[in-house]
Structures are given as C-alpha cells and as structure tokens.
Amino acid sequence: MTSRLIPPIRSQQLPDKSQCAVCGQRLTGAYYFLPDRPERYCEQCIEQRPRCSSCAAPVGSDGWTLHDGRSQCGSCHRSAIYDPQEAQALYADTVASLAQHPGLQVQVGASFRLVDQPTIQDLARQGAIATEGQQMLGLYLRQGRMRVVYALYGLPRWRFRLVVAHEFAHVWQGEHCPLLTDYDWVEGFAEWVAYQHLLFLGATKAAERLRNGEHPYRKGLEQCLKLEEQIGVRGVLAAMRTLE
Length: 244
Hints:
The protein is α+β, with helices and mostly antiparallel strands. 44% of the residues lie in helices and 14% in strands.
C-alpha cells in the first residue's frame, strides 16, 4: 500500500482573527487547511517548513524527525505506533475485526512485522513490486510457506489500522482467489476492505476521504462499491472467489 497524502487546500477567504497553528502568527491573507481538521496554516509555513509524512501538515517545534528521515508533526506523533508489541496487539485486533466485518476468514493467516522505510522499500524490490518512488506504508509478501504483513512504523493509529486492513485483504485473496491478477480488482478489493474497516470503526469522515480521494486504487474501489450496492457486502466476498 502506498501513501496517498491529501495536500493542504489554499483558501483566499480571510480568516476570522485566526492564527497559524505552527508559527502562531495572525493570518491576514490566504491560508491553508487540511480536510476535516480545524488547524489553519500560513503560506510561509506551508512553503518553508518540512511536511508531515503522515498528514502533509507543516511540522512545527513539537514535531519529530524519525530515524529513516521522515518528518512527523506533533499531532500525528502523539498517536503514532512505534512499539512492536503495541503494533502486534493492534494488528491482531484489526484482523479479528475484519473477521467480523466484512467477514475475512482465513485458514492460515500471516505473521506481522513493523519496519522502517528503507526496509519496506527493499522488501518491495525483492518481491518485484513497483513503488515508482512512492512511500510504501504496508506490504504483504508470500515466499514459499512464509506469509508476512509488513507495516511502516510511526503511522498514526487510524492509518496503521487502514494499512493492516488493506494488506490483510491480500492475505485473504491469497487463500480464496490466488490466481486473480487484475490490478483494479486486486487493489480495489483491498481498498474496499480498508473502507469497510473504517466504517466498522465509526471513522466515517476518513472513509469518505478514502472513497472520494484521488489515488491509484480508486477505480477498483468504485468497482467494488458498485458491486456491493447490487449484492451486498458478503456478496462481494463471494464474487471475488469467481473472478479468477
């Protein structure tokens, strides 16, 4: 799964005595904001400060630089998953939730690893997965009997769960439709599972951003959503088994 950051939106409308959330200066002209977030940013901070690798906001004095070079804003850092044991527990909880909704049942499953950016990029190359210079957030690889889901360390909690849901959908595909190679169905289904998981968690705004945002998986996601409208959630799972 690759990163699909939504860039800050520029507004020409004069703010109501607002301050830049990063530098604290009063906003007197055009400013920037991120969808569904209250913070406002001045043009100087947008242009001159490093951007958070998780949300694309400018990074202030409460931000962090991770050991693999990524920048993290204070807000994302406070909810980020760094500890392998915490990540393992959250992975297990996510997989259990996916068994409930949308109903991903597997016989074997996959182990889990929390890794940094260079490691996940190297694993993608080993698996002959084209990254095209994009930041990889997660990855599923099967080599012989080894099945492993990888996720990037330092992801905010909700994004971590999103990545795990997407990658575990590939685990399910490996058992139930292993010969399926059509990109839109393979990745679109995985994104549909991630979308369903966000709805299951009650993260409706994040689910809508996923549904309406511009990203490489959107066409496939729309295919699955259209199919869901016709035959329901469990119907999509049944249909996937017949698409090989």
